[in-house]
Specification:
The structure is a single chain. This protein is an all-alpha fold. It folds into 2 domains: 371 residues, Sodium/glucose cotransporter (Up-down Bundle), CATH 1.20.1730; 95 residues, no CATH class. The protein contains 23 helices and no strands. Helix 3 packs antiparallel against helix 16. The longest helix has 37 residues. It is globular, with a radius of gyration of 22 Å. The N and C termini lie far apart (70 Å).
Length: 477
C-alpha cells in the first residue's frame, strides 16, 4: 500500500528564507549594471554581456543552467535507482569533454556570430538559418522548467497551478527585459551558490539520521542498485546519443561565444564537469535515501520533499527548498532568454529587418512574450516533464548535430543544399517515427515501428545525406 504525502505548511522561518532568496535573485537581476560606453555594441552587450565572461562567471552560469529538472531527477532516482546517474550524468560529462577539447576554441574564436542559427546562416545560408532557428527555439523551450518551478511554488505557497505558472514566468523573466544576458549571468552566480548549498545541507543529515552505504544497501530494492536499472542497452544508448545535445545546445554555444577568451571557454567546460559530477552525486544520493526510507510514496515526485520533511530541522528546511528553487530558476531564466533571443533576433529581426543596434533588443523583448505563450501551450499538453525532454531530443538532435558541428570544420562541412536536406530529413523522419510510436501506443509508453527509437531513425538519415554529399563533393573535386 502506498503512503500519501501531503506537503505541509512551512514554518514562517522556512518560508521567509525561500521568499528572501526569490526576492534577492530578482533584485540582482534588476540592478545589473549597464555597460560602459565604448566597451561593446548595445546588441553585443544585451545578447552576450559584451563577450566578457570570466572563468568563475562562465562556470557558474554553465553549471547552474544545466540543472533545471531537479524534481524529475528526484522522481527518476526514486523510481529507477542508480541508473539515473548512468543516463543523466555520465553521458553529459563525456559530451562536455568532447566540446571542451574539440569545439570550445573554434566556437569562441567566432566573434562575428551570437547564436546557433546565426552560425548556421553564415555557413549554409538563410534557409538553414531559419530551420536552425526553429529547431533551436524548441530546444531552448523553458516549458519543462516552468512546470517544475510552478510545482515548487504550489508546494510552498498553496497556490493553484495556473497562478503558480504565471508567477514562475514573471519572477524569472521580469529582470531580463532591461538587463539581458548580463542579468541572467549575475543571477546564475547566486543560483549556483544556493543550489549547491541546499544539497550540501541535506546530505549530512541523511548519513546521521539513517546511516551510511550499509543502510542504502540493505533497504534499496535490487533493481535500484543495478547499473542499467532493468532497461535495455538500446534504451540506455538513446540517452547517450541524446547527451550529444550538448554539442548543439544554444545555451552552451552562447556561453562559449560570450567567454572572454578561448582558455576561459575550454577550461570553464572542464571545471564545470567537476561541479556537475559533485552535484549529481548529491542529488542521486538524496534520491536513494528517499527511496530507502520511504519506499511507498504515492507520488515519486515528492521524493526530495518527503526526505526534507523527515530529517531537516527548522531553517535548514528553508535552505534546502531555496536550493531546489535555485536549481530550477537558473534554467528557467537562461532558457527563457535564449529562446527569446532566437525568436527575436534570428527569426523576427531577420524577417522584419531594421538596424541591429536599435531593433534587436526590441525584438528580443517580443521574443520573451512569445516564448511565454508557447511555453504555456506546451505545459498544457504535457503529462510528464521528462517526456518533453525526450521528445525534443529525439527530433532536434538529428536536425542539428551534424550540420552545426561540421560547420566549425571548413574541410568537412557540407554544401548548402546538403546541409538543408540533412536538417529536414533528420528532423522530419525522427518526428514521423515519434508520432507513429505515440499513435500505436501513447505518450508515456510509445510503440515504435520495429522497436527503433526515433532518434536513431533521424540520425541514420542525417548520416546518409552527409555521406552522399561528401561523395558528390569528392567526385566534383
Amino acid at each position: 500500500m502506498k503512503s500519501a504525502f501531503t506537503f505541509p505548511t512551512l514554518a514562517p522561518l522556512d518560508l521567509a528564507i525561500i521568499i528572501f532568496y526569490i526576492v534577492a535573485n530578482a533584485t540582482i537581476g534588476f540592478i545589473t549594471f549597464r555597460r560602459r560606453k565604448g566597451k561593446s555594441s548595445e546588441a553585443d552587450e544585451f545578447l552576450l554581456a559584451g563577450r566578457t565572461l570570466t572563468l568563475p562567471a562562465f562556470v557558474a552560469t554553465l553549471v547552474s543552467t544545466w540543472y533545471g529538472g531537479i524534481i524529475a531527477v528526484g522522481e527518476f532516482v526514486y523510481d529507477k535507482g542508480i541508473v539515473t546517474w548512468i543516463v543523466f550524468g555520465v553521458p553529459y560529462y563525456f559530451a562536455a569533454l568532447i566540446f571542451a577539447f574539440f569545439l570550445a576554441k573554434r566556437v569562441n574564436s567566432d566573434r562575428e556570430h551570437v547564436s546557433v542559427p546565426d552560425r548556421m546562416r553564415a555557413v549554409y545560408g538563410n534557409r538553414a538559418g531559419y530551420l536552425g532557428a526553429v529547431a533551436s527555439s524548441f530546444m531552448t523551450s523553458p516549458a519543462p522548467y516552468i512546470m517544475m518551478l510552478a510545482t515548487l511554488y504550489q508546494w510552498f505557497f498553496g497556490m493553484s497551478f495556473f497562478l503558480s505558472v504565471t508567477i514562475a514566468i514573471v519572477t524569472s523573466i521580469a529582470y531580463l527585459f532591461n538587463g539581458g544576458f548580463r542579468a541572467s549571468i549575475r543571477t546564475d552566480i547566486l543560483q549556483f551558490i544556493v543550489m549547491f548549498l541546499g544539497f550540501v545541507v541535506i546530505i549530512p543529515f541523511c548519513f546521521t539520521t539513517f546511516g551510511g552505504i550499509g543502510y542504502l544497501n540493505s533497504h534499496l530494492p535490487e533493481s535500484h542498485k543495478a547499473p542499467f536499472g532493468g532497461f535495455s542497452i538500446w534504451y540506455i544508448l538513446v540517452w547517450y546519443i541524446a547527451a550529444l545535445t550538448t554539442l548543439v545546445d544554444p545555451n552552451v554555444h552562447t556561453r562559449v561565444f560570450a567567454a572572454r577568451s578561448t582558455k576561459v571557454a575550454k577550461y570553464g567546460m572542464l571545471v564545470s564537469v567537476f561541479f556537475w559530477l559533485f552535484f549529481d552525486f548529491m542529488t542521486n544520493v538524496a534520491g536513494l535515501y528517499a527511496k530507502a526510507a520511504f519506499p511507498n510514496l504515492a507520488e515519486s515526485k515528492f521524493a526530495y520533499p518527503a526526505l526534507a520533511e523527515a530529517i531537516l530541522p527548522l531553517g535548514m528546511k528553508g535552505v534546502f527548498y531555496a536550493g531546489m528553487t535555485a536549481t530550477v530558476l537558473s534554467s528557467v531564466d537562461s532558457f527563457f532568454f535564449m529562446s527569446a533571443t532566437i525568436i527575436g533576433r534570428d527569426i523576427l529581426w531577420r524577417i522584419f529587418g531594421g538596424d541591429e543596434e536599435s531593433s534587436v533588443k526590441r525584438f528580443t523583448r517580443i521574443g520573451l512574450f512569445l516564448t511565454a505563450i508557447v511555453s504555456v501551450v506546451v505545459i498544457s499538453l504535457s503529462e510528464r516533464i521528462y517526456l518533453i525532454w525526450y521528445a525534443f531530443a529525439s527530433v532536434l538532435v538529428p536536425m542539428l548535430l551534424l550540420p552545426l558541428t561540421l560547420s566549425y570544420f571548413p574541410k568537412l562541412h557540407p554544401k548548402k543544399l546538403i546541409a538543408e536536406l540533412t536538417i529536414i530529413s533528420g528532423g522530419g523522419l525522427s518526428l514521423i517515427a515519434y508520432v507513429i510510436g505515440i499513435l500505436r501506443g501513447n505518450s508515456v509508453a510509445p510503440d515504435y515501428l520495429f522497436g527503433i527509437e526515433p532518434m536513431y531513425v533521424g540520425l541514420i538519415a542525417s548520416v546518409i545525406v552527409i555521406l552522399v554529399g561528401w561523395s558528390r563533393k569528392g567526385k566534383q573535386a
